[in-house]
Amino acid sequence: MTSPHNAVVYGTEDVLISLCNSVTRVLSVATQGAVHYSGMVQRITKTCLKPDIGCFVLFDGGFSGLVIINFSAQAAMEIYQSYLLSMGMAQQDLATSFTSDEVANVMGELMNQVVGDFTGKVRRELQTHITQNQPKMLVLNQEVVLSVDANLDQPEARRVTFYTGNHNIFYLEMAIDHTEFIKLYDFEPQEVPDPDALMAQAAPAPAAPPASAADADTEALLKSLGM
Question: Which has fewest Cβ within 10 Å: 94, 121, 143, 164?
Fold first, then answer.
């Protein structure tokens, strides 16, 4: 048995690192650029939506919490444009203002991918389950700061600074109830499923081409000759 003194404890900062890695992984792949985050984290007393574009997601289940990402207009436009250009869209077909509904929709889609990646890791690595609502994107002006109450009993709040490939800045804020995961026994986290491999397994085996009449006659002749 693992003694209490040697138990592996997974706390708030570990949850935060897992979430930050999901942000960098999804956005780096989407934009074909290097998104990274600061090695320092801030302890904050509340989480807020701030200009220019704010996104928030509530999650519940094994633990409850709130995730907010506040983008500057420059960071949002860089991510939006890089993502769609990597998908093959032409520059002239892209929105030119961060206030466009298209920008908010695309950023909301990317945030949904981020949270989906995070909840998958929670299921595999912590062996618990959390659900999340659809990310909400809000375009905010300079005078609006919106505080979001997630109804947490013992909230712990953190803020992390992120940098895009062009060094534009955005911020992630997370608030969760104080919690610790203690490993009761050793286990191997489940591997991330490979979508391509799953599709290949699900695909039916290709059928053999039907033999033509000429092939059948040739086969009969060879048998008659003892070949």
Answer: 143
Distance of CA 94 to the CA centre of its chain: 23
Q: Which portions of the chain are predicted below pLDDT 50?
A: 1-2, 143, 194-199, 201-203
Predicted pLDDT at 202? 44
State the pLDDT at residue 2: 47
Own/partner contacts of 130-135, CB < 8 Å, gap of 24 or more, are 130/59, 130/60, 130/61, 130/62, 130/63, 131/59, 131/60, 131/61, 132/57, 132/58, 132/59, 132/60, 133/57, 133/58, 133/59, 134/108, 135/55, 135/56, 135/57, 135/108, 135/111
User: Can you tell me the distance from the alpha carbon of 204 to that of 78, in angstroms, rounded to the nearest whole number?
Assistant: 42
Give the pLDDT score at 201: 46
pTM: 0.78
Six-digit token pair at 101? 């509904």
DSSP state of 203: S
Two tokens, residue 51: 């200009």
Q: What is the spatial distance between Cα 174 and Cα 159, in angstroms, rounded to a whole number?
A: 7
pLDDT of residue 192: 58
Alpha helices (runs of H) in the chain, residue ranges in sequence order: 12-31, 73-86, 101-125, 195-202, 213-224
Determine the Cα–Cα distance for residues 198 and 176; give it in Å rounded to an integer: 34
Distance (Å, whole) CA 54 – CA 144: 11
Q: Phi/psi class of residue 149: alpha, beta or left (left: φ > 0; alpha: ψ in -120 to 50)?
A: beta
Measure the CA–CA gap between 36 and 44, rounded to whole angstroms. Answer: 21
